[in-house]
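Re-run with default settings, no changes from the original entry. Doing this only to confirm the output is reproducible before filing.
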Amino acid sequence: MIFSGNTRATLVCGALALAGMIGCKPKSEPTAVAPTKPPVSTHTDSPKHTNRLAQEKSPYLRQHMHNPVDWYPWSEAAFAKARAEGKPIFLSIGYSTCHWCHVMERESFENEELAKYLNEHFVSIKVDREERPDVDKIYMTAVQFMSGSGGWPLNCFLTPDRQPFYGGTYFPPEAKYGRPSFLQLLQNIHEVWTQRHGEVLSSAQDLTQRMSDLTQKEATNTLLHARVLTNAAEQFKAEFDAHHGGFGGAPKFPRPAQPAFLLRHGVKQHDQPAINMVMATCEKMANGGMNDQLGGGFARYSVDAKWLVPHFEKMLYDNAQLLQLYLDAHLVSGHDAPADIARDIIRYLLRDMTHPGGGFYSAEDADSEGHEGKFYCWTKKELGALLTVEEFNVAVDYFGITEEGNFVDHSHPTPLPGQNVLSIVGDLRPADRPLLDSAKKKMFETRSKRIRPHLDDKILASWNGLMLGGLARAGIVLDDPAYLAAAEKNLAFLQAKLWDAKTKTLYHRWRDGERDQAQLVDDYAFLLGGVLDLYEATLKPEHLEFALALAETMLAKFYDPERGGFWQSADGAGDLIMRVKEDYDGAEPSGNSVAILGLLRLGAICDRKDFRDAAEKSLRLFADRMQRLPHAVPFMLQALDFFLEEPKRVVIAGDASSPKARELLRAAHAVFQPRKVVLGTAGPVEAFAKTLPAKDGPVVYLCTGTACQPPTDDATKVKAMLK
């Protein structure tokens, strides 16, 4: 949620302004301003100099373990020290592949003078937002509440009891643009903390109360109806970039939930312009520099409007969602190009982002050798030395290679000259295809010998759930048993490392042989969705049984039976100042949106009215938000779309492991029909499905309610029925 408006929380900003600060940032101010020339670090990493973060598993925290800052992890020990010494807490939140987090570390946290001041006057805490999204959500909301914007690195100042009173994102090392340097900021906050202590505490309490009040929202009288979907689709269409694809301007994020919703709405309403917008967006993204043209996989976002220059970090959650989007685009269009992009995503993830046991790693950095994008970019001179003349000419024209390049890393004091991000800008004659393939092979092999960006190798249940679903669907939609085998291996890994079958508890993070203790609704919801995709692709009863265990535990731990909706964290998390209900489908869909859709799907497969009732009550809680701010909840709109119609049930009766059943199953998944579920007749499926008999072999029944069309064993007829 993003907040604006005048509140008593601005009192602190005024107090800090009186102490010589600039006060709160205006809403229009960017969250990060690039320094013109970062200072040289005054701290050298030494094996002898480590802080408490050396004991942590988080790759992000470990990146800071040699800082001279006396960092604490998020812990009672840090809170107790702040209380005992009467010091404010400096909370810094980021993640290991965050470019501007690296910049601020280099500029500030490795600086001995600044570290000394922090150590004397503050208790400093580092948090990995990917390990603790619940902590990040609270303090990101606070910073957005105070300033109107947010981002990472997120830096927030707290009272010893963890109530926020000031914050921002990137703070520069030198005073400029009317803003103080980071050291000046720390000095001013220390002055206000000591001289206007009562005002700071009062404002912090007020801000915390206002944030808490917002979590207690009640369901409104807004109706759940199809006009909400139509209204959202029209708003999304109005933002379409007809020149470059995508929605809105620079920086441009893929945010797959938005085109995914528009595609399903366009198909349902026979809205060809809406479908064309999504297809154009998929094509432009695939041709742009945001898509790794050599190795596959997408970067985090494009800094420009035309998808050319990416922010080079690669995230598992982006690629998992884009995999689903390109599978949908393939089914709707019937074209091979989206399927090829889906295969490229999987090729990248299985090659570079997979633990030997089957889990998927979290992310790859934007930087290598201190430069953003160095691993991915090429100079014209490099290609001239690597390729034959014929290969060079084709590659230069196809990828738009120039002498001056198209990318400059302005965050580095000495940017590399002539860097080219690869994107598809030229047409390719069929006769030149072998030359391009040969050039790409040489380029990929040469690039593979470069120093790779940092790999964040922690394994998160939530993001793995997203990828599990995409991989399972790809296995059945693209008819590739290797993808299904990888999905099965992934689920087995998650069940072995992050699931406690005795207590039915799903943990959040596993790394280096150890899991954490965090309990988050995203883990249950995202994994539920992935397991359902795997069940529908295999019809194995054990997967459906596991989905039921996830859903039942999710309801017990996170559901609010009084108002509806799901809390982000489990009850009893004593290190949080409040529980919140995430209701924003941003780069990742919210736990609420995914939980609602998962319960609706599972309820239809197993005929569980309690699942549907919880989903409906949650939709009613967010009904007003879907009506007024559809941009905030595109994934939840997909759940609403599923809820508003009785879903079609594709029941495959007979031996689900037989070749004939697999043929019928592939046919059921060969049609874009997002308002359907696919189930067999074994395991904890609905009772009605168990009454449907096989004939001489497996057959398909297409049912709505208790009415079914005549069974068929003809795959072509199955596709026709679903259309």
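The CA atoms of residues 556 and 570 lie 9 Å apart. The two ends are 38 Å apart (CA to CA).
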